[in-house]
Design goal:
Helix content of chain A: 25-40%
Strand order of the largest sheet of chain A: 1-8-7-4-5-6-2-3
Largest sheet of chain A: 8 strands, mixed
Distance between the termini of chain B: 51 Å
Strand content of chain B: 5-15%
Number of helices of chain B: 18
Oligomer: heterodimer
Number of strands of chain B: 10
CATH superfamily of the largest domain in chain A: Glutaredoxin
Strand content of chain A: 15-25%
CATH class of the largest domain in chain A: Alpha Beta
Radius of gyration of chain B: 26 Å
Helix content of chain B: 55-70%
Order of helices and strands of chain A: HEEEHEHEHEHEEH
Chain lengths: 174, 624
């Protein structure tokens, strides 16, 4: 009798341990802050145009319309960016959306090669060698996308875009 | 090309596993056919996994960036040595190394155990193959080292600079030999349990395998610790970081297991201890892999936060745990009938220290797992630091050291204390020495004196054994002497370390009563994969001895990271340790100067401990 109790409690203990680990796996320990960025004004910045020497644009010039814009932070070294690329290509066919790329801490040669092979979904690409513009936007990492309308951030997508976010963007811009 | 060969070799290896399992199940019905066929199959499996491993190394040497692993962890400007060590400096490659060691050990096991019964070897092989298949599937399904990327990038992302260090380059393979080597102990213990094969002879044969794992694990932990001391720049060697804990836990279990096996060799008792410890050593290693690889804990070793991987190891780990519980419950026959101990005997003292070891193990286990529990239950984040471990472990170290000092002097089964005179004399001498040392220096008087006396006591009694008994039982004397030296150096190091942190400009001098630090100059240099700024400092102590220290700041090119490299002047008595760091946007440098007594003795004593193990492994007399 005693041994039976011991054995069943042993098994119960390991089951609980399994459950705790399983739950713990789902809590990612990546720090996720509160996303209170709705209707926040976009930051002002000046940036170099990608792969054109000494051509600088300001944020007002880029987001000058009442159109929808999607600012996408990407880099050729970023693996998830490759995953989200097909979704960006898909979005680049939308009429009332302009995709702006922010090339983050990247090597020009690699980045060009990346776009040549996987095709270019961006209307404009600005280059952010030091990662300073990304800081102004309060970006958490690469990739990250901001949906912008009338110079306000409507929605941000941390991490790679997926089917759900594609659907969401399409329904917002309709 | 090399990637392709590597990938297909993995598939072949997996197929071989299935064939071996098929044959070994067939062997059960007719145990007379356990022949060369199965040994050569295991050899081919090992061969294919090595081929795959060398394929990966080759891709790294060639900087073949069409391979995702190479792209993520290498760069063309890396020196060859670090290109190669980059192979296991990442999740995928290091798992391939796991698999390599798993297959190597089962192959060696089959070669070396021809005297054992076929049934037993066969079952060991079967259990080991289950583990191997699990890892094959894990590797191929969730973390293949041979993923192809397109377009092929021109340049890789580079290896994390803090991993570019000679000690760390060889740390993973050595540690893995210990970690994964315990798998063979796990498989053979389960096999022996289910066949009711556990005996004194079995203990003699498994002892060697325990020793091999133990030696490598000890050396692996030592290398990791040396790396942390040199590279992380905090001037400490053990931080109670979860990653360090998960290597220490199997070590404690393995050390305890080894002592139990020593008893089992003499008397058929403590079999439950042996079985449970064998199981826990390997499951703790697996659990460690789970904790650091799933991203459930954050550390240098967390290569990827991929829940799918975590889930796989978790299910696999618990599968093995439940399998072993099942085997233990249904097949193990308890040996309680001859379970009588005389209170004063070698086995009693080993048993007492086993309980202490289990206590230390439990403390570390709780300290490591509790934050996860708390986060799941209350979503509160905490971290458990050194004070927790120090408070719970240090007081219990005192009786532990005393038992360790007296235990080896006792005889097996029934004993009486001889040489009581020396025992008391040593006690008095140790207390006196500690009293005088502590009195002149430190505030925490009582606990430090007692602690230091117990360490000195162990030190004296093992030194006496060393001198009196000489080469008789050399391995044990050496290991225990090494352990006493380790505790002693850690204590003295802790008590007498001093530290100065200050900000200095070039040309400035920091002055205190005991020391004068002059920041003379800096110069910069270009080296293949990094630029370096070297500071020159003159340190003048009370006796007007001038010592020159040159800490470095390294700016690595790929990835672009600044690391600070400590300059350490080591001699027999003390380490002088200095790091410098840039203070943002100013011409000041942050200087950290530490005086760490007896550092070298910490490393040497661990080497002595493992050397004791090596001698025991090669000692012919032990085998008879």
């Amino acid at each position: 009798m005693k041994t039976k109790i011991f054995y069943s409690s042993l098994i119960a203990f390991f089951c609980i341990l399994f459950f705790i680990f399983y739950k713990g796996l789902q809590n990612t320990n990546i720090y996720t802050p509160n996303l209170e960025t709705h209707d926040k004004d976009i930051p002002n910045f000046n940036a170099k145009i990608f792969s054109q020497k000494d051509k600088v644009v300001s944020s007002n010039e880029i987001f000058n319309n009442d159109k929808f814009y999607l600012l996408n932070i990407w880099a050729s070294w970023c693996m998830p960016c490759r995953d989200e690329h097909p979704f960006l290509i898909n979005l680049s066919n939308q009429n009332n959306l302009e995709i702006v790329g922010l090339n983050y801490k990247d090597n020009n040669k690699n980045a060009k090669f990346f776009l040549e092979k996987l095709t270019n979904p961006y209307k404009t690409i600005i280059s952010d060698k030091e990662g300073l513009i990304a800081i102004e936007w309060g970006a958490y990492g690469v990739p990250e996308s901001f949906l912008i309308n009338k110079k306000k951030i409507i929605k941000r997508f941390i991490g790679p875009l997926n089917k759900d976010s594609l659907f969401e963007i399409k329904s917002i811009i309709k | 090309m090399a990637s392709l060969i590597g990938f297909y070799s993995l598939i072949f290896g997996l197929c071989l596993s299935l064939i071996i399992v098929f044959f070994s199940i067939k062997n059960f019905r007719n145990s007379s056919i356990f022949d060369k066929k199965i040994i050569s199959l295991t050899f081919f499996q090992f061969f294919f996994v090595s081929l795959s491993f060398f394929g990966l190394i080759f891709s790294f040497i060639n900087s073949d960036f069409s391979n995702e692993t190479v792209f993520n962890h290498s760069h063309t400007t890396k020196p060859l040595f670090y290109k190669i060590s980059g192979t296991w400096g990442n999740h995928e490659g290091s798992l391939l190394l796991w698999l390599l060691v798993l297959t190597l050990f089962i192959f060696l096991f089959l070669l070396k155990t021809k005297k054992q019964t076929k049934q037993y070897r066969n079952l060991t092989l079967l259990i080991q193959q289950i583990i191997i298949i699990g890892f094959f599937i894990f590797l191929i399904k969730t973390s293949s080292p041979f993923n192809y990327i397109f377009p092929v990038p021109m340049e890789g992302l580079g290896l994390n600079p803090i991993l570019q260090d000679p000690a760390l380059a060889i740390h993973p393979p050595i540690l893995y030999l210990g970690y994964v080597g315990s798998s063979i102990i796990f498989s053979s213990t389960l096999a022996a349990t289910s066949l009711n094969y556990i005996s004194k002879e079995w203990a003699k044969h498994i002892k060697k395998w325990v020793l091999v794992s133990w030696i490598f694990l000890t050396l692996g932990i030592l290398l990791g610790s040396i790396w942390a001391y040199y590279e992380l720049g905090w001037g400490g060697f053990w931080f109670w970081d979860p990653v360090e804990n998960v290597s220490l836990m199997p070590w404690l279990a393995l050390t305890t297991l080894f002592h139990c096996i020593l008893i089992l060799e003499k008397r058929l008792i403590l079999t439950s201890w042996v079985i449970i410890l064998s199981i826990s050593t390997f499951t703790l290693s697996m659990c460690g892999t789970f904790l650091v690889r799933s991203g459930i804990l954050n550390s240098v070793h967390t290569f990827a936060n991929d829940p799918e991987r975590g889930l796989f190891i978790l299910i696999f780990l618990f599968g093995l745990i439940f399998l072993s519980i099942f085997i233990f419950l249904f097949f193990h026959k308890s040996d309680e009938k001859n379970y009588n101990f005389f209170w004063l005997s070698k086995e009693t003292s080993i048993l007492i220290n086993n309980w202490f070891m289990m206590y230390f193990l439990t403390v570390i286990l709780i300290g490591t797992l509790y934050p996860i529990f708390l986060e799941v239950i209350s979503s509160e984040k905490i971290s458990v630091g050194p004070p927790f471990y120090n408070k719970l472990i240090i007081p219990f170290l005192i009786p532990f050291l005393f038992v360790m000092a007296i235990g080896p002097k006792l005889k097996w089964i029934n004993s009486d204390l001889e040489n009581k005179f020396f025992l008391v004399l040593f006690l008095i001498i140790s207390i006196l020495i500690s009293y005088f040392i502590i009195k002149n220096f430190n505030g925490d008087f009582l606990i430090n004196t007692i602690l230091l006396s117990s360490a000195f006591y162990l030190f004296f009694s093992t030194s006496k054994d060393f001198l009196v008994r000489g080469f008789k039982n050399l391995s044990q004397n050496l290991a225990h002497f090494g352990f006493s030296l380790l505790i002693l150096s850690i204590l003295l190091n802790n008590i007498f370390s001093t530290e100065i942190i200050t900000n200095l400009k070039i040309g400035e001098t920091f002055q205190s009563e005991k020391i004068k630090i002059n920041f003379e100059s800096i110069k910069s240099k270009n080296i293949k994969n990094y630029d370096v700024i070297i500071g020159k400092f003159n340190i003048k102590n009370l006796n007007n001895n001038i010592e020159v220290l040159k800490p470095e700041l390294r700016i690595y090119n790929q990835p672009n990271i600044v690391t600070s490299e400590a300059d350490i002047k080591t001699n027999l008595f003390t380490d002088k340790f200095m790091t410098m760091n840039l203070v943002q946007n100013q011409d000041y440098f942050n200087i950290r100067y530490q005086n760490k007594p007896f550092m070298i003795w910490i490393w040497l004593s661990v080497l002595l401990i493992s050397f004791g193990g090596i001698i025991s492994l090669f000692n012919k007399r032990n085998e008879n």
